[in-house]
Amino acid sequence: MLLRDIVGQNEVKNRLVKMVNENRLPHALLFTGYDGSGNLGTAMAFAQYLFCSNKQNNDACGECPSCQKTNKLVHPDLHLVFPIAKSKDVKSSADLIKEFREAFLENPYLSLNDWFEGLDAENKQPIIPVEESGNIIRELSYTSYEGLYKIMVIWQPEKMNTEAANKLLKVLEEPPEQTIFILVCNHPDQLLATIISRVQQIPFLRLTEAEIKEALIKKFGVTEENAQQAAFLCDSNFNEAIKLLTQSDEQLSFLQHFQNFMRLALKFDCDKALQWIDQNASTGREKQKQFLQYGLEIFRDCLMYNFGSRDLVRLSGNEKQFLEKFAPFITQRNYEMLIEEFNSNCYYIERNGNPKIIFMDLLLKTNELINKR
Predict the structure, then answer these.
(1) Range of lowest pLDDT (26-30, 196-200, 256-260)
(2) Which of these, 39, 16, 17, lies nearest to 207 by C-alpha position?
(3) Could you give the CA distance from residue 224 to residue 238 in angstroms, rounded to a whole number?
(4) Which residues, in sequence order, are bridge partners of residue 183?
(5) How far apart are CA 344 and CA 321, in angstroms?
(6) Which of 166, 177, 171 is CA-nearest to residue 142?
(7) Closest CA to 372 of 331, 326, 342
(8) CA 203, CA 201: separation in Å to the nearest integer?
(9) Cβ density class 143-178: b for 16+ within 10 Å, e for less
(10) Closest to 46 in 3D by CA, of 211, 220, 38
(11) pLDDT bucket at 247, cuts 50 / 70 / 90
């Protein structure tokens, strides 16, 4: 992947190239950005730039042997670490490297949810286990095969458990020669402060609607109208913009699921509530977190709609029709408490709480808050 293939982020790309040209490249970089910002793709494109033997116009040539290998993620000096669903057959990233290459090459704006859905591992928590730190130390102890550098790209380092993070910290403190770490992170607040203090942060800014629109037209040949709509609705997430072009059934499924939840909250029916909770508990933890996050977005849009900022509401079609009817139930009196409840339950799901207990409690509290007058 080439730097010019990354949507927007010109300031970041220029900064990285300048570091190399001025021989000021630090041994550890932290690419921080939200889902769909392009920080993972930029990490791979920057690795290709570093390996390239014929750099030109502030980018890799894309044609030399090193570029061709890196473009397929098979360069012998490029090492990849990413979250896995640990099992008796999967102990580290090495056990899923083929699947990861295929997923990234299909979509460089890959999200963690996309990755785990592709693995059919939605019921498991993503983790970078402590064994991975040992693999990192061992792989980087060897001399480089072809490139000037050995590059270790760690995607979602916030998914490391404490023991793994502490071992990584030791490597960052005393890195092997000619080794570059690129940590690609969505939630830097979840990293150890000691790790953050030993890396140079490269923040990725929000993509503009104009950048997303232009990229959609160029990459997918869609009409200007469709590109504009997707760019508006995706909330700066290019991965989401791509999905919006196909109007995926998943979004409609979340809407129907949320509608059913709110109908039960408005008029509680114990039998139907138990059916809904059983259905929801069987979907897997990542899907449950996505549902809660979807609810948070709907609440936010309701508040915007109620207070006249309707141009900030990023919904269309069935979602917009639902919002127009549902918005009156979200008021200043219950908004903050609903947000707090949904956020708290997302935290409990992440901590392996019992989903049936969590969602029954949420349903009862939402019933109380929605009917509050």
Answers:
(1) 256-260
(2) 39
(3) 16
(4) 30, 154
(5) 28
(6) 177
(7) 331
(8) 6
(9) ebeebebbbbbbbbbbbbeeebbebbbebbeebbee
(10) 38
(11) low
In the numeric block, the tokens 């059934």 are attached to: 249
Q: Which pTM was predicted?
A: 0.74
**Tokens standing for 330?**
């979200």
Cα distance between residue 238 and residue 221, in whole Å: 15
Q: What is the C-alpha to C-alpha distance for residues 57 and 69, in angstroms, rounded to an integer?
A: 20
SS (H, E, C) 251-289: HHHHHHHHHHHHHHHHCCCHHHHHHHHHHHHCCCHHHHH
Q: Which residue has the tokens 């949420």?
A: 362
- What is the C-alpha to C-alpha distance for residues 292 and 263, in angstroms, rounded to an integer? 16
Highest CATH level, class, for 3-205: alpha beta
Amino acid at 189: D
Tens-place pLDDT, residues 262-319: 888 888 888 888 999 988 888 777 778 878 888 888 888 888 888 876 665 666 667 7
Return the number of other C-beta atoms located less than 10 Å from residue 286's C-beta: 21
Token pair 């009862």 in the structure block, residue: 364
Angle between helices 10-21 and 39-51 (to 10 degrees): 30
Contact 201, 30 (CB under 8 A): yes
Distance CA 190, CA 157 (A): 9
Tell me the domain boundaries of the chain: 3-205, 248-370
Taking only the tens place, the pLDDT of each residue in 68-109 is 999 999 999 999 999 998 888 888 888 899 999 999 999 999
